[in-house]
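Moderator note: this is an archived Q&A kept for reference. The question asked for a predicted structure of one protein chain; the sequence and the answer are reproduced below.
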Amino acid sequence: MKYGCGTTIDNYSILHDLGFDYIELPGNQISKMTDEEFDALKTVLENGSVKCCGFNAALTPDIVITGEGYDLEKAKAYAELLCKRGSQLHISAIGIGSPKSRKFQEGDDLEKAWKETEAFMT
């Protein structure tokens, strides 16, 4: 059996000391890192025993995938950054989190909302 934990890279040494196998990092923090910060994170993961299996909480509230404020180009550019960084870390999953990114309100067009979400996911 393998053990993992969803937390920030700041807790990496704790996970290592406790014998964890995997860390799941918050995508919304990965996306805000400079290239230099990301390279440092990548070095920690490459040299350590605790590997990154994926990103959780991937979206920031300003990345709207359906509803008011929907901007497909902005969302896709953001997703491309996360996928590129995830690929460099050899992750296998990205959890699409952030309720504020899904702004479906009562009375909104359900079919339109699904189409917006589908456009983002493809």
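Archived answer notes: The helical segments are 12-18, 27-30, 35-47, 72-89, 110-121.
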